[in-house]
Amino acid sequence: MMQSKLASLTQKAFLAFGLFLAALVSSLAASAQQAAPSLPLLFDARERLARPDLSSLVRLRFLTSVDFPPFNFTDQNGKLSGFNVDLAREICSELEISDKCQIQAIPFADLKDALAASQGDAVIAGLAVTPELRRQFVFSRPYLMLPARFVRNLAAPVDGKTAAALAGRPVGVVKGTVHEAMLAAFFPALKAQTFDTKDALLAALKERKVDAAFADALQLSFWVSSPASEKCCALFDGPYLSEHFLGEGMTIMLRQKDSVLTSAIDHALATLSRNGRLQEIYLRYFPYGLY
Description:
The strands form three sheets. This protein has a five-stranded mixed beta sheet. Strands 10-9-11-8-12 form a five-stranded mixed beta sheet, with helices on both faces. The protein is built from ten helices and 13 strands. By secondary structure, it is α/β, with parallel strands linked by helices. Helix content is 39%, strand content 19%. Pfam families: SBP_bac_3 (PF00497). Keywords: Signal.
């Protein structure tokens, strides 16, 4: 989904959150199992992708970074953690190559060159799929989409449960973002009010200078459940997905010559999606849900 596109929206907001998440993840995951927010299936349940023979594989080296929590970060004990890290381990387990599996963190800016130089075999770090990268590399099937959502101030008298109920009310959005463009395209009848930064947008929402906001569901999900929101607000309507505005989703990047490994990873992702293990990882890091 993505990191080069999402980094400006997420990195600063979530760097401090990484340590907080690691400390709370066990208790949050336990309570989340009761509500069980659903992860949309990105693979057809009837589809069966063959598992290629990996007997000749010497090792599978996943490359990631540590600056994109809750996807990849170092926890309070200095251990590499996150959604992507756990997913890489599950992929190796599903392919029965855990003994050959390695996960290494390097600076985000070095990921592309390291993969091209065969210093790793797959990048799982939230890189956005771009035409330029597609000319150099191949990508797995998407395993997670990061949607856009509305969040509303609970004190605002919104009569209805869909975006249509926001007609005529001020809806905040960050200026110059894909979410501003998406809001205009999807909801032309809404009265958009722009803000220079995410922090300014959320402050205005909390103070009810706007009745609702439209932004990245990842940020909003954590914000509404954090002390910073002071329980003022709740997610509203949606989720809204758009490849045009939000990209293809989160994928794994590999070298073009590694078609067998790419097929194997697609097989593993499809299996993890069907058997619920991908959902389990999702609940560890998104206990309040994105959808």
